[in-house]
């Protein structure tokens, strides 16, 4: 139900912001692309629309905030909140011999995450007595109304109506107070309006996540500060990746240059390539335990094959004319390696490195989820056991941001070191 | 014996399906030092194969190439090659590309600097010497390739359709440049081309090859290259005998192509 609501709101924002931007911001830039008349089907003419990206990110926060009742989103944009506070309803008790009496049930609904406190009310007159019920928002409560009544269900009494509306077994009624139904044994189940907002235990509002992040950044979590957790993960990734590259690149070169090396390592590489690194986690834990060694070896294995294949592709991708030209210019084999094959393979190696870093980052988090005493993955795993959803969310966001940051950094380095990529 | 001797070269490619292609059969010729020979022939007649054998990239199935008295067994700095395209090093700027040969020999900039700068000057690349290769036009890139080859000071320069990818105007300018550099440096040059005009203008000797199997069909000795040095190439085209020779060669190649087409049609 909430899911469909959110989807509809999302689609509506997508369409409306598209129309709004189209209408308001007539194309003002006059670069070469804007002069192209054929854009549909010309991939190079499709640039990512900055407006769309900004609105997209804002929309996610808006929906997140609105369905969690965030203080950062103005109240009128909030999804309906669940009922909180005091309410009451009257029930009509009917005894076996047809006597009727009304009594009021006072309900105190506590907000998400707060203790519901029991309280006393005046029991009133008649055979049916007033009740006091304490409960939490968005929950149902089964109300044993006859605990204090003079005639109980055991004596054949039953609830005939609530707030004057007839009710019986199997019927469900709605009044201003909420939804009512009777259990098999005749007790009242009462659900106050639950609204459309998520409970923080499922999805905390953004400000909670930020507050939690500030808290962990200063006080730490599980004996390490936030930066130490992230630092551990990053260190493992970088160490594993560097080892993998250090061995994988020469291996790839050797496979690209020598038939013996290629023949020897091809079965191994082709076998290991489709094995997802995640599948190696159990074996690595059995062999090396849950310490740093095991993790770094796992990441080393994750990046080794990717880098070897990238380096091999880089060697075989060299235009044979370049090699011939270098030989005719008097270069030795070593010089051809150094001045032709290695620089020529750099674009491929960078592509491989970006893939490998992505895979390593994903693998380290997964490995930490399984077993670790610090790290981003360990943080969210432990938090999830204690239902600390805000820490889990914070961890996921940080993991995503860092992964994205790594890729941007690699692309920047690539632009500096391999400016000729894709331009020859 | 000085010069370049191609002695009874045959080349057969064995294909994976068991058949084989006779790319060259019994090709012999001799080039004296400083001669410029252009090579023409229908597509697939073995021109590139011949050049690759002379360069030392391919070993012939029969025959030998003798260069200044020794057998050719592999590529060497004495035989420079200018490729059609894609053979420049994108990771180096123009000047580093041109100085590649001397640098690989371990020479210091003091040794090669002046010569490289002179070649950049001659080829009109002075203003572009610090540019990256991908920032140059096709014509400029070919001039870099030419300068790079000359900077290494080879005895023989082999060119496989070096101007094939250029527009007509740039091409004509480059033809003038090739002629000028040829006369200036006195290099032996073999130049493969698809353009009969280019073969006539640049070839002091002109070799017409025939296909299936690839062989020498006819050789001409022509005066046009000498006339063209430092002159307007369009003037040369009005010289006596130019038009007749052109028509004769065009007809010759036309007939060969007809024959290939006819044969492959009857084969089907
Ligand atoms: N590596 C190879 N394997 C098999 N056959 C080859 C190979 N290289 C060339 N050939 C064959 O040898 C013949 C001559 O080829 P070559 O490339 O020398 O022709 P060409 O005269 O340079 O043609 P073009 O003018 O189109 O460049 C062709 O029939 C070609 O199919
Ligand atoms: Mg060819």
From TrEMBL, chain B:
UniProt cross-references to PROSITE patterns, sorted A to Z: ABC_TRANSPORTER_1 (PS00211), ABC_TRANSPORTER_2 (PS50893)
Entry-linked Pfam families: ABC_tran (PF00005)
Keyword Nucleotide-binding annotated: yes
Keywords of this entry: ATP-binding, Cell inner membrane, Cell membrane, Membrane, Nucleotide-binding, Translocase, Transport
Any one GO MF annotation of this record: ATP hydrolysis activity
Domain of life: Bacteria
Record-linked SMART domains: AAA
Record domain ABC transporter: where: 4-236
Alphabetized InterPro entries for the sequence: AAA+_ATPase, ABC_transporter-like_ATP-bd, ABC_transporter-like_CS, ABC_transporter_ATP-bind, P-loop_NTPase
Keyword Membrane belongs to the record: yes
Family the entry assigns: Belongs to the ABC transporter superfamily.
Name the UniProt record assigns to this protein: ATP-binding cassette domain-containing protein
């Amino acid at each position: 139900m909430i899911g469909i609501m959110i989807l509809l709101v999302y689609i509506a924002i997508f369409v409306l912001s598209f129309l709004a931007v189209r209408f308001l911001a007539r194309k003002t830039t006059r670069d070469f692309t804007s002069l192209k008349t054929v854009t549909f089907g010309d991939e190079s003419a499709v640039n990512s629309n900055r407006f769309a990206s900004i609105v997209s990110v804002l929309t996610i926060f808006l929906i997140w905030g609105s369905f969690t009742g965030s203080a950062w989103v103005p109240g009128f944009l909030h999804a309906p909140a669940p009922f909180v506070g005091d309410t009451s309803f009257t029930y009509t008790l009917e005894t076996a011999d047809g006597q009727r009496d009304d009594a009021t049930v006072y309900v105190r609904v506590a907000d998400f995450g707060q203790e519901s406190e029991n309280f006393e009310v005046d029991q009133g007159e008649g055979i049916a007595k007033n009740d006091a019920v304490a409960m939490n928002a968005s929950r149902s409560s089964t109300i044993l109304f006859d605990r204090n009544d003079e005639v109980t269900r055991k004596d054949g009494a039953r609830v005939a109506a609530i707030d004057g509306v007839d009710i019986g077994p199997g019927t469900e009624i709605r009044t201003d107070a909420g939804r009512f139904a009777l259990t098999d044994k005749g007790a009242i189940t009462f659900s106050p309006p639950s609204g459309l907002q998520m409970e923080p235990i499922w999805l905390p509002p953004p400000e909670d996540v930020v507050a939690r992040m500030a808290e962990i950044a200063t006080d730490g979590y599980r004996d390490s500060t936030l930066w130490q957790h992230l630092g551990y993960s990053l260190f493992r990734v970088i160490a594993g990746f560097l080892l993998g590259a250090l061995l994988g690149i020469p291996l790839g070169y050797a496979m690209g240059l020598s038939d013996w090396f290629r023949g020897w390592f091809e079965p191994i590489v082709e076998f290991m390539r489709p094995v997802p690194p995640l599948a190696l986690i159990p074996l690595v834990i059995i062999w090396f335990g849950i310490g740093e060694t095991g993790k770094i070896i796992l990441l080393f294995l994750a990046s080794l094959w990717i880098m070897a294949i990238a380096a091999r592709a880089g060697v075989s991708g060299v235009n044979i004319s370049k090699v011939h030209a270098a030989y005719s210019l008097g270069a030795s084999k070593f010089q051809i390696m150094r001045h032709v094959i290695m620089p020529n393979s750099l674009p491929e190696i960078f592509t491989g490195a970006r893939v490998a870093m992505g895979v390593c980052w994903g693998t380290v988090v997964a490995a930490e989820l399984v077993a670790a005493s610090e790290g981003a993955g360990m943080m969210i795993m432990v938090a999830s056991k204690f239902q600390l959803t805000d820490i889990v969310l914070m961890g996921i966001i940080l993991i995503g941001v860092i992964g994205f940051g790594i890729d941007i950094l690699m692309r920047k380095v690539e632009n500096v070191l391999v400016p000729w990529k894709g331009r020859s | 014996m000085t010069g370049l001797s191609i002695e009874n070269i045959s080349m057969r490619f064995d294909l994976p399906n068991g058949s084989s292609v006779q790319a060259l059969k019994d090709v012999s010729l001799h080039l004296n030092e400083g001669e410029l020979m252009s090579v023409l022939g229908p597509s697939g007649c073995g021109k590139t194969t011949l050049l690759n054998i002379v360069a030392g990239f391919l070993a012939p199935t029969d025959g030998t190439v003798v260069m200044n008295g020794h057998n050719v067994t592999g590529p060497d700095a004495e035989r420079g090659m200018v490729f059609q395209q894609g053979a420049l090093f994108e990771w180096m700027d123009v000047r580093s590309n041109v100085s590649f040969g001397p640098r690989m020999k371990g020479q210091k900039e003091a040794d090669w600097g002046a010569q490289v700068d002179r070649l950049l000057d001659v080829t009109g690349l002075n203003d572009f010497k610090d540019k990256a290769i991908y920032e140059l036009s096709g014509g400029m890139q070919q001039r870099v390739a030419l300068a790079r080859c000359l900077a290494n000071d080879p005895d023989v320069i082999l060119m496989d359709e070096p101007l094939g990818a250029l527009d007509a105007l740039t091409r004509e300018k480059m033809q003038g440049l090739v002629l000028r550099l040829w006369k200036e440096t006195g290099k032996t040059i073999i130049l493969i081309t698809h353009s009969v005009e280019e073969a006539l203008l640049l070839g002091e000797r002109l070799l017409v090859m025939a296909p299936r199997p690839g062989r020498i069909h006819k050789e001409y000795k022509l005066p046009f290259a000498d006339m063209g040095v430092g002159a307007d190439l369009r003037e040369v085209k009005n010289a006596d005998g130019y038009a007749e020779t052109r028509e004769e060669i065009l007809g010759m190649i036309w007939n060969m192509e007809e024959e290939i087409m006819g044969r492959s049609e009857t084969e089907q």
